[in-house]
Structures are given as structure tokens and as C-alpha cells.
Amino acid sequence: MKIAMLARNPNLYSHQRLKEAAEESGHTLDILNTTRCTVHIASHRPEVFYNGEPMVGYDAVIPRIGASITNYGLAILRQFEMRGCWPLNESVAIGRSRDKLRSMQILAKHGLGLPLTAYANDPKQAEEIIRAVKGPPVVIKLLEGTQGIGVVLAETMSSAKSVIEAFRGANVNILVQEFIKEAGGTDIRALVVGGKVVAAMKRTGAADDFRSNLHRGGSAQVIKITPEERSTAVRAARRMGLNVCGVDMLRSNHGPVIMEVNSSPGLEGIEKAAGKDVAGMIVKFIEANAKEGRTKTKGKG
Q1: Nearest 10 degrees: Cα torsion 103, 292, 14, 69
Q2: Is residue 240 in a domain?
């Protein structure tokens, strides 16, 4: 099988592990810098070029699209889909996951546990949305932030209003969420592959940080999740339409609440914490499911 990976940095642990796992199974995997791909749009001839050369003969594509180039990366992925190339995660599903507001609306529609969340455009409504999520304290997030960037904990009404007003004054879209104090600075990352949780870890933030992201100084350890947490992660992946994702949850007094569904989850932390070959599991899923033209959306928006 010939596999393409859309990724800007070929040296990242996750990308190298996926390449190793694919090659160990007898496949070819090429890591293509997403920004060097171009699309040629002509009737009945959807083509993708890389450094000026046509991309042909690929059976599957693994999208590892950076958040800063989401729109461009999705355009490239859609072109692969229209050619009949099978994607590990489809463009429509990735687009949903990258829009925090849209993903929350989808998950809420299907009854999945979420922290109370509010969204408004007018900074004059700051106090209204703070009280709507039973704050302060509240967590304020950029709609398009990733890896803990653009996430602020505001502990008083005045500080929360100031942060909201500052973001909106800069014309930046934000969500305001309730602060789950009982989580104690920890969260759970459940890695879903093909409708099953294949690994899980508990992440704990650094001593002076309420965020638990590993590359921000957090630590990880293997954890046995509850049946309810497992079901929540699987349902979230299904509702978002993602074959592979990391579902981040907090343990609240009323059960697991989803913070984010990540369509390009890192593998280093969870493989080392859980001691599992997650990259190999992803490759096996590709082997079992990659068929030409099997894409559900075929590049539709």
C-alpha cells in the first residue's frame, strides 16, 4: 500500500512512529509538506501536485494538518478525496473538530457531557455570559487555539470581563466555559481508533498551571477509565465523524465532560504512558479500511 501523510514537520515523534509502523507492515509512506502541495482545478480532473510533480498512485492519506494552516490543508485533503484516495480522517470531520464552537454544538445536540459553555459577540454581554456558566471563575478560550495556547483562567468577575473585552476588542472569537474545580488540574486523554478506545492516560498540569498539556510542563500516567468515560469518548468520535482522535475529558461531579476532540492527536505521550503501539494500531486500521472511493463525503464541504 502507498500512503501519503500531509504534515509540515517530518521529524515529529508521531510522524516518525507512523512511518515506522507503516514500513514495518510492508507499506510505503511519504511525508509531504502540506504547504508545498498545490491543487489544479479542472472539470473532471482533480489533481494534486507536490513540488510541481503530480501525486498519483496513493491508496490512503493520513492528514496531520497543523492548526495554523487548517484551511489550506483541508483544501489539499479534499482534492485527495475527490481523486478517490481514502483519508484516515475526512476533511469535513477535521473541519468540525477545528471549530471549537461547532464541535461543542454537535456534541451537545447528541447529549454528550460538556462543561457549561457560552458564546457572544458583544463585549457588553460579558457579565451575562460569565453568569451563564456559573462563574466566576471561568475558562476563556480562543475558538481556534490549540495545545493550551489562548486558554485563560479568570478567577474574578472583573478579571473575566477584562479578558473578554480585550479579546473581543482585538476582534478575536472566544468561548467562555465553567471551571471544573473538582478536576484538580488533571484531565483524561482517550485515544480512539476505529470506534474503540485503544489507550488512555491521565494528564496533570504543572504546579503553577491549570492546563494539563504535556508540552506545557504537564505529566502523564496510564489510567483505567470508567465504562461511562469509554462510552463518552467513542460516541464523541462517532458524532464528529473521526476515525482517529484524542478525546479530552474532565472528571466532574456529574460525570465526564468533554473539553476537546483532537483530530490530530500526538502519539508520544500516550504511547509512553500506556506502553502501547498506537501507531501500529492506526496502520492496521488503514489496512482494513482503505479502499478507493470509500470516502463518505468525497471532498464535499
Answers
A1: -50
A2: yes
Residue 169, amino acid: G
Amino acid at 228: E
Q: Do 7 and 69 share a domain, yes or no?
A: yes
Whether residue 261 contacts residue 98, with contact meaning beta carbons closer than 8 Å, is answered with no
**117-175, pLDDT tens digit by residue?**
998 888 788 899 999 999 899 999 887 655 557 789 999 999 999 998 888 888 888 88
Give, for 226, the enclosing helix (H) or strand (E).
none
Q: Which domain holds residue 132?
A: 117-179
Beta-strand runs (E) in the chain = 2-6, 28-32, 37-40, 47-50, 53-54, 60-63, 86-87, 117-118, 138-142, 151-154, 174-178, 186-193, 196-204, 219-222, 244-252, 255-262
How is residue 85 annotated by DSSP? Answer: P
Residue 25 lies in a domain: yes
HSE value, Cβ hemisphere, 13 Å, CA-based, for 37: 27
CATH of residue 32: 3.40.50.20
Q: For residue range 12-25, what is the model confidence (pLDDT) as tens digits?
A: 999 999 999 999 99
Residue 78: inside a domain: yes
Are 283 and 18 spatial neighbours (Cβ–Cβ below 8 Å)?
yes
Reply yes or no on whether the pLDDT at 212 is more than 70: no
Contact between residue 141 and residue 174 where contact means Cβ atoms under 8 Å apart: yes
The 3-state DSSP class for residue 51 equals coil
Residue 147 falls in which region: left (phi positive, over 0), alpha (psi -120 to 50) or beta? left
What does the pLDDT look like over 44-83, one tens digit per residue? 778 999 998 998 899 999 999 998 899 999 999 999 999 8
Q: How many angstroms separate the CA atoms of 198 and 190, rounded?
A: 8
Whichever domain contains 254, its CATH number is 3.30.470.20
Element (DSSP H or E) covering residue 158: helix 157-169
In a domain, 129, yes or no: yes
